[in-house]
Here is the input.
Amino acid sequence: MKGKGALQKKTPKVCYPPIFRRGKITAVMEEKKLQFFREMLTAQIANLLGNAEKTVAEMTQRKEAFPDPTDRASLESDRNFELRLRDRQRKLIMKLEEAIARIDDGTYGICEECGCDISEERLRVRPVTTMCIACKTNQELKEKAGSE
Ligand SMILES: [Zn+2]
Here is the structure.
């Protein structure tokens, strides 16, 4: 009775020590949530791959439709734009695949810097992220300081 309750009251721990980084994912994120993110990531890859195929198809079509030189020139810059876009798509697909690999090895949703949980909200917005918001902000601040 003598104030024992107050003593036992601990602040809930949000962070997991780095030792939990591997193989303890169930303690960090439920299987159901992981499944959700796996489906989300897989869908995004499928979407990107679909777009890439469409881009190529459109490029081939246009080449045939506009044989004169002016159009060919604009087609060239279009093509460069498309290629840059595809390069970005390819890199994003790589990141998405890495995220799925992290789901498989049990490190998904854990910050690679501090070993804390990355908030679910953040993961929903940026499912490929590998850092919690605090570490990401820190990194950006450091980068900013370094470039100045
Ligand atoms: Zn962190």
User: Anything to note?
Assistant: DSSP finds six helices and no strands in the chain. The chain has one domain: 13-147. Helices lie at 4-8, 25-28, 31-65, 69-105, 120-125, 133-147. The longest helix spans residues 69-105.
